[in-house]
Amino acid sequence: MGEEGVVHHVGRQVADDRERAAGPAARQGADAFRAATRGARRWRGPAPLVWVAVAFAVVQLAVMPLRLPLGWDEAVYVSQVSPRVPAAYFSAPRARGISWLAAPAVLLSASVVVLRAWMVTLATAGLAVAFWPWRRLAGDAVTAVAAAAFAGLWVVQFYAGEVMPNLYVAYGATAATGWFLRAVTGPGRRGVIAVAVSVAFTASTRPPDAVFLALALLTAVVVTPSWRRWRPAAAVAGGLAAGLVPWLAEAYTRFDGPLARLRDGSGVQGGMGWTNTLGMHLRALNGPLLCRPCHLTWDYPPLSLWWLATPAVAAAALLLAGRRRGRPARLRRGSPRTAVLALPAACAVAMSAQYLFLLDYAAPRFLMPAYAQLAVPVAAFAVALIRGAGRRRRPAVAVVLGVCFALHLVSQYLVLQRRTEDQTRLRADTLRAAGLLHRAGLRPPCTLVGPEVVPLAFHAGCSSEALSGNNASVTVGELLRRVRAEPVAVAARGPRAPGFARGWTPCVLRMPDGADWYLHLAPSPRVTGRCG
């Protein structure tokens, strides 16, 4: 017992002696005092993780424009739950979880500011919820550093306010892995239930990612004897099954079954098969948002050093945790066990495999689930460096690591600004084109046809249709029948009209950047306006 413990023990004995001498009234007062002091000792204020989430929200509101118009994929997801615009074609690879998350704001208001604010709120809460189970596994310091490292990435900052699924897949997977570890290493049903909910949430948002996550967790049950408990395994399998129910139901109603939907999804993705896109992901790390086809050069290599270093640092964390296993307890205090760091690393590898070795294109958002999982061992390594340094060197080590992290955040901010400016310009042009469409006489209810019309049709309030390609949704015959009921136009980036529309009225929507839209308006008494 240390000096503080001795003093506390002696103080309690003196208080008990006084209590016995003073009688029942004094004893009641002492009981109340002890209860109050126990509560005060338990209350330590908000966890550091909460402060990280709050800082994340503040940065979002300060840096990201809430008025940023919706992009292509966002238009698809939002249109599924919006009462104001027709639903865009929902292709086979997509899942509806992110649409349901956005639904409260979409149903409440047509304002993009309201929607962005709602998504930032969800992203903030999601950051805390995702890393919450890791507090008991890795400690408050490691958990807070991991959450900060993940939240500091430009791709996380950009997509926090977007209606896109990848960030929420990262949240669900990180929470599922943490609760799984708690379920296999401790008693109680809380962890088991949380595992099932987390896996189900991930599956409802992006099913393929959830399948790879579940495979990694179930493999861990098989290969680790001390983890062979049926409840956690059943929670993973049951959560996956529950989360896949909407996807399966839609597969039967729209795609002739799950296998047909998987085939269609593979076709939309360009055909899934063995490939190696590590180089693509490295070159596309700092943008554009989608690299398809991906023929970029590797620009600004220093901005990508963190990506190259992350796997090495995670491996170093595992080695360090393994070396500490045989050390005295006083040297291991506060250090996560090897399994706590190995499982998220394994899940990161499993969830990134499909994007690195099955898809022939890249996007920075695809690897967010892996980044979230790898943040835990990376943070554990950083905290271990500080704690493992001697008393004299510890402040210097902390300062060096802090400066490195600050420089990393600055580099991420620079990339974020570049990507935000690009998207603001591109999406503002789409809004301008939608206004010109209205001037040309194409107003709701209306139909816009073409391979690239989804965001333009969304902002114009029209249905979006395609005659060919990944989003083919209508035939020429169906389109010609629709002409009798509402205004219809073919929109493309080139002036050539399809055969059935050669007698339609041509119209050019001039854009400031020269990427003009060429329209062909079907004859209709409702189309009254002028081109601009």
TrEMBL record:
InterPro entries: LipidA_mod_glycosyltrf_83
A cellular component annotation (GO) from this entry: plasma membrane
Subcellular location: Cell membrane
Main location per the UniProt record: membrane
Alphabetized UniProt keyword annotations: Cell membrane, Glycosyltransferase, Membrane, Transferase, Transmembrane, Transmembrane helix
Transmembrane segments: 48-68, 101-134, 141-160, 210-227, 234-253, 305-322, 338-358, 370-389, 396-416
Residue span of region Disordered: 1-28
Protein name from the UniProt record: Membrane protein
